[in-house]
Amino acid sequence: MLVRIDPDSPAPLHAQISAAVRRGIAVGEIAPGERLPGARDLAAALGVNLHTVLRGYQELRAEGLVELRRGRGAQVRTDAAPAVAALRQAVHALVGEARRLGLSATEVTEMVREAMA
Amino acid sequence: MLVRIDPDSPAPLHAQISAAVRRGIAVGEIAPGERLPGARDLAAALGVNLHTVLRGYQELRAEGLVELRRGRGAQVRTDAAPAVAALRQAVHALVGEARRLGLSATEVTEMVREAMA
DNA sequence: AACTTGTTCTAGTCTGCATAGAACAGTTAG
DNA sequence: CTAACTGTTCTATGCAGACTAGAACAAGTT
């Protein structure tokens, strides 16, 4: 599992970290049940603070993609199927673009509903 | 042309302003060639600083959506084609992925609705 | 029991956001 | 031409979030 970070990016480091893992799951680089690198290890590898990595991991947990337990580390949930992760990413991209355009939730969902019909 | 702002949103005010105008152009509320409200007026109407509005306007200029000139104000460029193309692309990608997974329209729209919240 | 790993807490620095006021330079209207 | 309007530029200040840092703690593994 490879996580790359761009310190010059306007995107927060923790967001970059969670995005990298998210993508890894979506593309299949990371298998369900697989353990992510320890927060302290990854932090050292990226030249970043422990708390920054932890925050990224906790974002993934909030999305239901990984489980975090002391002593065991971060583990990709078995029900976090790659396809689902891919879908989640597609939703993410759409929502991001919609936000950029300032569209409301109903406007976007209406577009999706039409496209699905 | 209506511009609404949420001071409690994590999104910067200048981004919210540019997004509102962007949306107006995308949806057709604002016609090409139309003049946007003066920065000082809009700032007063929104209870926001002049510089904040100006920054939003300048973002739109950087995207080639509007022209800014002293004395004349902000004008929507006639060739400001709806940037909705990117949005439609995102919708297309999402729908394709959702179909591949056999998800229903309501399931997908619900995911989008959640992600937009 | 020793070690690992996430959790929580406090605290400090730094950057971007937003505000504020002023002076300036094209543009338009009277 | 003059006056009013509008974006441009400059300096300065307060604030919140991001990131770092160090420490102590709790649950799990070996």
Considering the chains and any ligands shown, give keywords for the structure.
homodimer; 117 residues; mainly alpha; two-stranded antiparallel sheet; 2 strands; 58% helix; DNA-binding; DNA binding (chains A, B)
Characterize the structure shown.
Two copies of one chain form a homodimer. Chain A contains five helices and two strands; from the N terminus they run H-H-H-E-E-H-H. Chain A has 117 residues and is mainly alpha-helical. Chain A has one domain (13-116): Arc Repressor Mutant, subunit A. In chain A, a hairpin with a 3-residue loop joins strand 1 and strand 2 (73-76). The first copy, chain A, is globular and about 45 Å long. The model of chain A has no long low-confidence stretch (mean pLDDT 87). The A-B interface holds A 83-84, 86-88, 90-95, 97-103, 105, 107-109, 111-113, 115-117 and B 11, 16, 19-24, 26-27, 83-84, 86-88, 90-95, 97-101, 103, 105, 108-109, 111-113, 115-117.
Counted by DSSP, the helix tally of chain A is 5
In CATH, the homologous superfamily of chain A goes by the name Winged helix-like DNA-binding domain superfamily/Winged helix DNA-binding domain
Radius of gyration of chain A: 16 Å
What's the number of extended β-strand segments of chain A? Answer: 2
- From the 3D structure, determine the CATH topology of chain A: Arc Repressor Mutant, subunit A
Largest sheet of chain A, in brief, is: 2 strands, antiparallel
The name of the CATH architecture of chain A is: Orthogonal Bundle
Chain pair sharing the greatest interface? A-B, 28 and 36 residues
Oligomer: homodimer
**Euclidean distance between termini CA atoms of chain A:** 38 Å
Helix share bin of chain A: 55-70%
The portion of residues forming beta strands of chain A comes to: 5-15%
Quick check: average pLDDT of chain A? Answer: 87
Poorly predicted spans of chain A: none
Order of the strands making up the biggest sheet of chain A: 1-2
The computed structural class of chain A is: mainly alpha
Supply the number of structural domains of chain A. Answer: 1
Give the CATH level 1 class of chain A. Mainly Alpha
Order of H and E elements of chain A: HHHEEHH
